[in-house]
């Protein structure tokens, strides 16, 4: 009996930190999923881990969310295989590491209005990537 309780406690202790550390990222923060927002800059300021989720908030029927592959993302192609999410409060669980791509499939929102998001998801326990510092250019003096 005591060994069973210890085993359950050990499993719970191992799983609790991953549950507690999961983050729900509201895409675009207070702006939400909308046109003319810099999602590349937004994503660059975040760390996405396995176990986290994305929340796409937008006005229905003005937008939607489509999971894309890299080619579909780059060319803003709506694939028939990828069904649009249309609730206005779409949650996508990040279940595996790697690159993930999302576009808006309404009209030309992805291509003309920057409604596209690319992220890199890392393992839950991986260290966060080092921030990239902006390039500093020294003044050039001519003598």
Describe it.
- The structure is a single chain.
- Helices cover 26% and strands 22% of the residues.
- The protein has a 4-stranded mixed sheet. A 3-stranded mixed sheet has the order 1-3-5, with no helix packed on it.
- The longest helix is centred in the first third of the chain and has 20 residues, at 2-21.
- With 143 residues, it is an alpha/beta fold.
- It has one domain: Sandwich (Immunoglobulin-like).
- The protein is built from 4 helices and 7 strands.
- The chain is globular, with a radius of gyration of 20 Å.
The end-to-end span amounts to 84 Å
Per DSSP, the total helix count is 4
Name of the level-1 CATH class: Mainly Beta
Q: Point out poorly predicted stretches.
A: 15-19
Question: What's the story with the biggest beta sheet?
Answer: 4 strands, mixed
Q: What fraction strand?
A: 15-25%
Helicity level, as a percent range?
Answer: 25-40%
The second-level CATH architecture is Sandwich
Shape: globular
- The strand line-up of the biggest sheet is 2-7-6-4
Average pLDDT metric: 84
Number of strands: 7
- What pattern of helices and strands is seen along the backbone? HEHEEEHEEHE
Based on secondary structure, the structural category is: alpha/beta
CATH homologous superfamily heading: Cupredoxins -  blue copper proteins
Number of domains: 1
Q: Using the CA coordinates, give the radius of gyration.
A: 20 Å
CATH third-level topology: Immunoglobulin-like
């Amino acid at each position: 009996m005591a060994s069973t309780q210890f085993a359950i406690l050990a499993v719970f202790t191992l799983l609790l930190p991953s549950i507690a550390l999961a983050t729900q990222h509201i895409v675009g923060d207070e702006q939400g999923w909308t046109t003319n927002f810099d999602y590349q800059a937004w994503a660059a300021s975040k760390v996405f881990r396995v176990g986290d989720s994305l929340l796409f908030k937008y006005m229905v029927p003005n937008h939607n969310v489509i999971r894309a592959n890299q080619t579909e993302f780059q060319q803003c192609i709506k694939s028939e295989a990828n069904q649009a999410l249309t609730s206005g409060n779409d949650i996508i669980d990040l279940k595996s590491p790697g690159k993930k791509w999302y576009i808006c499939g309404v009209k030309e929102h992805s291509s003309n209005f920057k409604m596209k998001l690319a992220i890199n998801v890392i393992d839950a326990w991986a260290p966060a990537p080092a921030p990239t510092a902006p390039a500093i250019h020294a003044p050039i003096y001519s003598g």
